[in-house]
Amino acid sequence: MVRVLAAVVVLLVLIGGGWALVGSGSSGSGAPDRAPDSLGSGSEAADPGAETSELEDSPPRSSSADRTAVESGDQGATDSPAVTFEWVVQGRVVDLRGMGVADAEVKLLDPRLESSGPAAMLGLGELARAAGLAKRRVETDADGRFVLELDGEGAFRLLVEHAEHPREEYRGEAENETTVGVVITLRDGAEIRGRVEGVPDEVTTLSVVARRINPLDVASKALMDISSLVDNVGGGTLIGDLAEVAPDRSFRIAGLDPDDRFHVWAVRTDEGEQPTKCTERVDVRAGAVGVELRWREPLTIGLRVLDDATGQPLERLAVAAGFVRKVKMMGMSVPIATKQRLPRTEFPEGEVLIDQLEVQDGDRETVAIDVGAHGYRTLSRDDIEVPRAGHVDLGEVRLRTAPIVRVSVVAAATGEPVPGASVELDPEGESEPAPGERGSRSISFSTNFSATVDSDDDPRAAGIEVDTGQAGNSARGVTDSDGVCELTAQFDGAAVVRVTSDEFAPFVSDSFVVAMTGTTERHVSLSAGGTVRLTVVDSHGVVKAGAAVQRTGPFEDDHEALRVGGDGVHVFERLAVGEHAFRLSAGSVDESGLNVDVSGLDDEEPGSRVAVMVAEGVTTEARLVEPVRCNLRGVVLIDGEPLDGASVRCVAAESENGDFNAAAMSVVEGMLGGLIGLEDARNGSTDVDGRFALEGIPIGARRIFVSHRDLSMPAVRVVTLVEGDNVHDVVLQDTVVRGVVVDADGKPLRGARVTVQGAAIAAADSASLEGAEEAFATLFGSDSGRGVKTGSDGAFELRGVRADTPLVVRVTARRHVAGEARVRALPAGTDESGVRVALASAGRVRVSARGVDGAMTVRAVWVAPPGDTTEHPDVQRMLRNGRATLDGLVPGRWRVRLGGMPNVEEEVEPREIDLVAGETARVDFAN
């Protein structure tokens, strides 16, 4: 039995014509399904355990390497079986007395979930370690020896677990194909003993969980805290040590760290059911004895489901229910509904009893419920407040009838029905963008934290689905033996049908209108499609083994990312007829963990592209050639001195947005440095001697951008690169702009922020950069350091401005409208003094959205008076603890609206306010 841990995805788009923050519960294929909306012919509930992840608890993979991983070495002979791997670590697990520890699990941890760096910002490293999630694992033999496959050369992390010992982590470096001599010593473990009191006689399967307090507490201080969600998945069994309760209701949890404190509770683990917490938790230290856990009957919820029009009971239903948990994202609270499907589908007289809700520790809780039936609109509620115990009667629940779309699927070649095909009914236009198509000029980071627990005996291996309220209106099902699937339309208007099958090419229908009532028939003929045999080579025709490739097909959702094999070839089968584009990916693909996308900001083509027309039944040969690449090195000097710690990037020379992109990347690098993966072999920094070295850069005309805290704007040099090694130094002369900032009365303004940029950057783009800086400062509590602040006399000095290009000095200050001054192109090494910028008084808005779930941002949009064509940039800020201040607004009318989760944008009405210069308005969205 396989369970996929609920994935949490955060997408932050920060730069462009505005930015937005979105969270979703997705593990790579869209938001989770809602409760089944159709129980008719061929319909089937989505299986929350159907997805898989790279973080799998699977046995080591055999490789094609012709050598044996277990070789004679420092450890001497071993009885371990000979297994063929390319890279391995060979070692022994021992106790404090040097005795081998048998049956210990040795796990290879995923480096992307490192407990420091980006994963720590999202609270994932400690959570992953607490859950014991691993890429692969092995058990030690009778003498404590093990052999474990590694991913390749470089750093690796191992986690060792044993029932009688605390966990132990080992960090090593794989320099050769076989790393030998690793010895991991396990400390003696402590235990917690006690009893579960008051358990009903009919309850036979109980377990006790002990969760170390520290990991989730650490995560709660991170950028995103999903501890409240993970702590309730499967009764919290995923992130704790688990022990079965004996028939006499006693328990013993061993192998605990003697220095730690633990949350302890009991879980009911009935076969085939989701593990359910059945006692309140107690907090104890390791070594505690006589711990008493008291059984408590769970909360129950009853309701009766009726047809809204006739009042007749509906007896065949799909019901899901669970508690709403709050996930903290950047100081904001986002509700996540953890819902479990009831195994029953038949409910006589429409009477539904939900009796598998877990015992909670709080006084009151909020429950989410989905109730669906074939031919009826699904009723979803996520606001049901309940006590922590007892019975809650919701009374009658009425479902409105909905139209049905009946899809018949046949094979085009034979006309025979196609059973087992996946059918999806979507509103027209709802689809996910292909990789790299998130829109122009955006920076986003995301994490897709998902993992599997694979064990038939582990009570944690039951399924749970997580709904962030973004499941949308899609309906999904599977064709029956007659090739028929009936889906209930949960929306009005135009729709499309998508059909996939392992034996046929994917199909997407033309748009059609779903009938308001009754059944709409759609007939689908699936073809075998065509085949593309893609070969990837470098610029010299040498095969590129393991190259990352992305394919985009003729349909909006038809895209995939993968790595080609060792021969540089991948055969794409059952492709839809039409044009398919293939391109090399500059980064990794198909990885969970933290990913970064700089769409539109890095003008370099990520890789070569090739377009192929796929024809039915035809195999087409395609060749993807990596662009000719080269290496670049040099030194960065300013006034003859080396510039240490400068960021060096190399991008396309012909970019239309080069100045903006350089400024945007400077903002990101200044805030986050190399934390989020923006630095790789093609981007780097200078050493103490000002030297830099970049690798893998496409040849041709390129621009070198240099950013540094002592440079008020990135320096740029246009160069032509050729194959091989290139040497280009960046020699700068300090060019300076000086001036003063005053208010409307001519008085000096202290503390105004002054920045400088190329005159080609528009005012709206400048505002977007400022919004991005403010957002990063909110997220990470840091300041990019871009620009300077004026002194008590209002004076400023900008050093290291770019020479020989027209400039704009831009000034922002609290309670003032942003202003700017244009500066002529300056010869290198010269000064420009006497720049004067006067700022007018502004209005501002203090916004409160405390208590508005899912609210993450607030935006003010200028509302021009009739006949006035004046435009002012939008002002957007992130909410922190439900509050934000929009400053620097031009006096006049503004429309203020919340952003974040879709329900916020759809359900919370914007407010319009008239701002007066020098005054502060207040908007409270909670009232």
DSSP helix count?
Answer: 7
The value of Rg in angstroms is 31 Å
Which structural class do you get from the secondary structure elements? mainly beta
Instruction: Give the overall silhouette.
Output: globular
Tell me about this structure.
The chain is mainly beta. Helix 5 (658-672) runs parallel beside helix 6. The model is unreliable at 1-83, 115-119, 216-222, 431-471, 587-604 and 673-679 (pLDDT under 50). The protein is globular. Helices cover 7% and strands 45% of the residues. Strand 59 (807-813) and strand 60 (816-823) form a beta hairpin. Strands 13, 21, 22, 24, 25 and 31 form a six-stranded antiparallel β-sheet that branches.
Overview in brief:
The protein is 7% helix and 45% strand. It is mainly beta and 927 residues long.
Provide the descriptors you would attach to this structure in a database record.
single chain; 927 residues; mainly beta; six-stranded antiparallel sheet; 7 helices; 68 strands; 7% helix; globular; disordered N terminus
Question: How are the SSEs ordered, and which strands pair?
Answer:
Blueprint: E1 2-4, E2 9-13, E3 20-24, E4 88-95, E5 105-108, H1 118-121, H2 124-131, E6 136-139, E7 145-149, E8 154-162, E9 165-174, E10 178-186, E11 190-197, E12 206-212, H3 213-219, E13 224-225, H4 227-230, E14 241-244, E15 250-256, E16 261-268, E17 276-277, E18 282-285, E19 291-294, E20 300-307, E21 318-329, E22 332-341, E23 351-354, E24 364-372, E25 379-387, E26 391-399, E27 404-411, E28 422-427, E29 444-448, E30 452-454, E31 465-467, E32 475-478, E33 484-488, E34 494-501, E35 504-508, E36 512-513, E37 519-526, E38 530-537, E39 548-552, E40 559-563, E41 569-575, E42 578-584, E43 593-597, E44 609-614, E45 619-625, E46 629-638, E47 641-642, E48 647-652, H5 658-672, E49 683-685, E50 691-698, E51 700-707, E52 715-721, E53 724-727, E54 730-732, E55 736-743, E56 753-758, H6 763-780, E57 788-789, E58 795-799, E59 807-813, E60 816-823, E61 831-839, E62 843-848, E63 855-862, E64 875-878, E65 883-889, E66 892-900, H7 902-907, E67 911-915, E68 920-924
Parallel strand pairs: 4-10, 11-19, 20-26, 27-37, 38-45, 46-53, 46-54, 55-61, 62-68
Antiparallel strand pairs: 1-30, 2-3, 4-7, 5-6, 5-8, 8-9, 11-15, 12-14, 12-16, 13-21, 16-17, 16-18, 20-23, 21-22, 21-24, 22-31, 24-25, 27-33, 28-32, 28-34, 29-43, 34-35, 34-36, 38-41, 39-40, 39-42, 42-44, 46-47, 46-50, 48-49, 48-51, 51-52, 55-58, 56-57, 56-59, 59-60, 62-65, 63-64, 63-66, 66-67
